[in-house]
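dumping this here before i forget
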Amino acid sequence: MAVAERTPFASNRRRLIKDRVARYGVSAGGLMVLAALLLIFGYLLYVVVPIFKSASVEEQAVLTLNDDQVTLLVGSDELGELAYRLLGNGELRYQSTVTTPNRSAGQKLLNQQLPISPVVALARDAKAGELLAIAGSEGQLLLVKAGSSVSYPDNQRVVEPKLHYPLGEQPRQIDSEGQPLNRVAVSTEGGIRIAAWTADHRLLFVRFKPKRNMMTDSVDWVPSTLALGTQFSSVDELRLTPSARYLFVRSGDLVEVWDARDSGQPKLRETVRVAGKGAQVTTLALLSGSSSILVGKSDGTISQWFEVDKKEGGRGFDKIREFKVPAAVVSIDVERDRKGFYVLDANGNLTIFHATAHNQLWQNALHLDAGARMAVKPRANGFVVADGDELKQYKVVNEHPEISWRTLWQEVWYEGYPEPQYVWQSTSGSDSFEPKLSLVPITFGTIKAAFYAMLFGVPIALAGAIYTAYFMTPAMRAWVKPTVEIMEALPTVILGFLAGLWLAPLIEENLPGVAMVLIALPIGILLTAIAWQQLPARIKQSVPEGWEAAVTILPVIFVGWGAFALSPTVENWLFGGDARVYMTNVLGIGFDQRNAMIVGIAMGFAVIPNIFSIAEDAVFSVPRHLTNGSLALGANSWQTLTRVVLLTASPGIFSAVMMGLGRAVGETMIVLMATGNTPVMDWSIFAGMRTLSANIAVEMPESAVNSTHYRVLFLSAFVLFVLTFFFNTLSEFVRQRLRARYSSL
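structure:
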């Protein structure tokens, strides 16, 4: 039976089909990778872009008031469903601002005549904005909290007005002489404190202390009044911080700062001039947290002042930054829990700013009268305005006001800091916390960690790769190369665990030993090589050819053991028994147990296998005819290596280094476990750092979804993505240039 012969055409067809399938498969895989990268890029942008959106304001309702009384003050409840107004005759009126199943917008809910009429002066508590201090014409004062209560009858939410009187429903006598209180300020945090300026030019500070009746269990507030010796004959404004730490007394462009923390007698700390020539102060406001005061002026500027260290010594208030509106400032209303504030100017324009971001978020002409009264809602999602015979309610969408290019990438002067700084501090125990979300410290930490890892890993990996590929005998290479490459399979969490819990304490306890290793190890290897050359030929020939490098293992072990064994003795002899204390107190070098040295060693071991494997393959793949030709022309092995082999393999070697750098930049677990995770900017090898990847791993679980913190963490992931993309693109560009330059060899 004849056997069918396989024709070359059939074989070529099958090979062609396989080639096409392979080509299409590789192309499809590459396109899928590219699509995945684009999807990651797009999703990161989708999460990040909202933090850069400006605020938006929308008018929700306009209600007719139908009364002939002057509105002195306006406010809103927590949910934004009620608005209240205090009228000049001492009447407090509530009405609904939204339509619900139970009531219609504009419906009057409460008309409460307060036992003070007419109202001579009033003030809000800077922290609890719904707490009002209302002063009468005979030295009396009434505290009333214009709050609300929520109930759910028949599963329907009903918000009702609710008034509370902390000092009782009747006014309390503040001035025993019965003089009108022309200016008042109130604080209720940790007790009730009142500051008042009387018609006969006296500044009073009243502290109410609770006294419980043992028989009736009722609480009576007992006042103690102090007269403060101010230099002013007239006072325009009083402001009292919530904790009564500071009392600000303004007369014209001068502000007295009183320290009211002392329970005995407030003390005058300083007098500050808050306006220069050509401008008059129109109003003061306390920014959220009450560490800063905002000064509005007639030229349309608003300046922020807070306490800093003075050059001449001590601490005092200084102007930090300024904001600008088109006309004279009429009023400033602040957000309760953020550093935002609203400015109404003489032209009826409303402008929204954020103090920390030093950013104007929104501005528009609302055509409000100069006598309009405005209040920001407690949740900063809107504001209400009493303008003539109309009550207007506005909705504000302003989710991320604290983010700007300045706060992310430039130095910012934060409250309480001695100077502008780069700071990452995303959380705090205080509700009035000033977010500090600079990406500079953690980006710096990423670069620093990668730098020290590469400083440790690149010389070892490249030297090992070159020796293994060019000088090492094939038998030894068959053992060394797989051994180094298998290190890549070691989980980085294990490296981080060992670095943090074993290596860091070991190095801290043996700092002199580490220094001696760095000095003695190269010397020991060099002396070993010299000694090997001096040995008799009989002894050298007993070692198989190409295995001479194994001899260097002995000095590495001996020098390492000897240095650490002598470390306590050297420490007692040179450093008084504690090298760390000597570094800190004598040399002025700070030392953190988990520092850049630990990260460099641990992450260096993580990147060595990558760099070694790629570089070794590049050197080993240099064509033999190039090396043989160089040797035939009289060059020695070292000249052939430096002038032929390394140049030919340079594209691969550069790619290896850049791959290692990309690995170091994106490493998470090692830097998470082997550093103190402190976002400081210090190049010292003995200081810690926090990297972008570790920051995401630490803080993402505790961030609220879609919050500013959450989106900034995604922005840091985007920055990390861009960094790695940049390094990889740069490496590919340089590799192609090197390949084109040396491909002709």
